Amino acid sequence: MHLHLCLSFFFLFLCAARGIAQDVEGNLVPNSSFEEFNPKFTGPADVNNSFRLLAHWRSPNYGSPDAFHPRYDELVNKMNMSGQNDQSTFDPIPSRTGEGHIGLVPISFYSYREYLQVKLAAPLKKDSTYYVHAYVAMGEKLSSHTTSAFGFAITPRPLRRGDNRCIVLKPQIENSSSNFIRWTDWQKIGGTYVAKGGERFLTIGNFKPHSATPMEKTDQFLPVNESRPSGYIFVDDVYLGQERPNEIDFEQFMAKGSVNLNNILFKTASAELMVASIPIIEELAVFLESSNEVRINIIGHTDNMGESTDNIELSKARAASVKSALVKKGIAASRLQTDGKGDTVPIEDNATETGRKLNRRVEIQLIK
């Protein structure tokens, strides 16, 4: 029985190891999209704590983040432990890339916290600039509140705390206090860091004490109790490297003539761009600056919630907002056209939230 289990896990580990190839080139974060399993499997105790199964990642305190991956479920079934750690209660969203992502607690009324920590593939070089980011989304069923408190601590030695409480410090990179983490949509959070030299560890989470943590009611999932707020977030695709990774596949755009930009986000029923959209706008502006001959048509799309006529107007206004942001970045207005299709050109089924999320998008088309 033990040999069968070990061989089964070894097979799963080999399959999961292929996820390493999905890491962004130049990324110093190993297992950045949580696809690779830990070969040091010990038995049922590890299955009951799914985070232990991930290669490279550790918890700096006694909190226990959750790993979400189909191969984890497969392993549980092979060990006849179904139901002992039912992840369906967490209602995880689809991974942003690959098949794996992480869940952790950034808000708890008694200062319980969960963090992610990883040893980088190489020490950072003194005075070099590094780009750092992760994608996050608020968990639905386990959140009475959301927060903007999320940061990246970059240190020469691993952080440690001997209980499951908050690690209080000022991280080198912090999310904007007004940029609250949303539910259902993956949201990029990050910044740049100039290394002091020799840093080897990256730790991710909320480093603010409970009294200083910005919170906002979700009003739609767990019953809200102001004296006992709780929050749960998902994390995927962590990056730290000297190369600024592109969100937009410009080679595909030039070859096919169009690309969807799902990470340009707006406030609900509004044409106001959210803070999380700024990196995508900047990336598009840099591309247009370096490609003076390129002209684009910016097209807004919505889901089918609300009246179709209103959706047409909203999609046009959103396209105009993107154009205005690009003009402010120095792109000539004459190179930018706009249009709005409302809910008339869906790319997924509007019957599901996942489908509606993908249908809410900005598309750019090459004008030839």
In CATH terms, what is the architecture of the largest domain?
A: Sandwich
Shape: globular
What string gives the helices and strands in order? HHEEHEEEEEEEEEEHEHEHEHE
How many beta-strand elements? 16
Mean pLDDT: 83
Strand order of the largest sheet: 1-4-10-7-8
- Give me the CATH fold name of the largest domain: Jelly Rolls
**Computed structural class:** alpha+beta
> What CATH first level of the largest domain would be assigned?
Mainly Beta
What is the percentage of strand-forming residues? 15-25%
The percent range for helix content is 10-25%
End-to-end separation in angstroms reads: 64 Å
Describe the structure.
- This protein has 368 residues and is an alpha+beta fold.
- The protein has 2 domains: 2-241, Jelly Rolls, CATH 2.60.120.260; 250-367, 60s Ribosomal Protein L30, Chain: A.
- 21% of the residues lie in helices and 24% in strands.
- The chain has 7 helices and 16 strands.
- The strands form 4 sheets. Strands 1-4-10-7-8 form a 5-stranded antiparallel sheet, with no helix packed on it.
- The protein is globular.
- It starts with a helix and ends with a strand.
- Mean pLDDT is 83; it is low at 1-23.
